[in-house]
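User: Good morning. I'm curious how adenosine-5'-diphosphate would be positioned relative to this chain. Could you predict the structure with it bound?
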Amino acid sequence: MRRLRKQRDELLRLYKQLSSELGETNRGVVALYAELDQRSAELRAASEAKTRFMTSVGHELRAPVTAILGLVRLLRDPGSDPLTPDQAEQLALLEGSAADLLGLVNELLDLAKAESGRLEPRWGTVDLPGLFGALRGTMRSISRSGAARPDATRTEVEIVVEEPDGLPPLRSDEAMLTQVLRNLMTNAIKFTREGEVRLAARPVGADRVAFTVSDTGIGIPPTEQERIFEEFYQVPGAAQADVTGTGLGLPYARRLVTLLGGELTLASTVGEGSTFTVVLPIAPPEPR
Ligand code: ADP
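Assistant: Good morning! Here's the predicted structure, ligand included:
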């Protein structure tokens, strides 16, 4: 009898000890959750502040840069006083710089808009043959003109746009998809000296479509493959000293793809090339 009582007391003691330990753990978990909540609120606030900052800087810069461009064009107008060759050259440089700056400001504003949640996709049936045909035309002319890569040493890069055959009908935002693919292809052309840049599309399962933009260019080291999706990030390296850019194209492309309910991923090997893949659902995602 006494042994039984002793065992019971021992069990009770153990039970109490366990309960109190469990209580403590629970309190720890609750505190951790509260801290996580606070951290995510802080992150949200920081990200909103960044977006507000980008928007106001963008707006503040756009007006004066547009004014500079307007004045330069006025000075170069054939109806204005004639310019000396030196002045004409200087004005051309001024116009080029101002146009670059305006491009940067516009990209900044686009990205800020996409991040602020004010950009809503306009869902509709995408005309893929039309879209691919238009890209084939513009990308070939960009590649040929050297606009994406103004160095004289580049050899001809072949632009291959496959036929988008055998795909289910796609409901998405055609303008956003065009912007994303144009952006990826322009990058591919910029960072490829020889070989090809290829756009293809294939079905993934029954309800998704994958678009791939692959190139035979310089490639991206593994350590940089996530960073290039950060604002203003550009892979450091001499190979790119001759190409222009802002480092805003990829973060913007990823934002747009996310708005469309899809994913933008990358596979790349240095010296061999890169493949960017956009996987989109064939119908708008359910609102969360
Ligand atoms: P930008 O092209 O204006 O510099 P992006 O955000 O589009 O900005 O790209 C960021 C960086 O990612 C580029 O500067 C380049 O270093 C790298 N990158 C993007 N696409 C490619 C590619 N196809 N091949 C090699 N590097 C690339």
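The chain has a mean pLDDT of 90. The radius of gyration is 28 Å.
Let me know if you'd like a different ligand tried.
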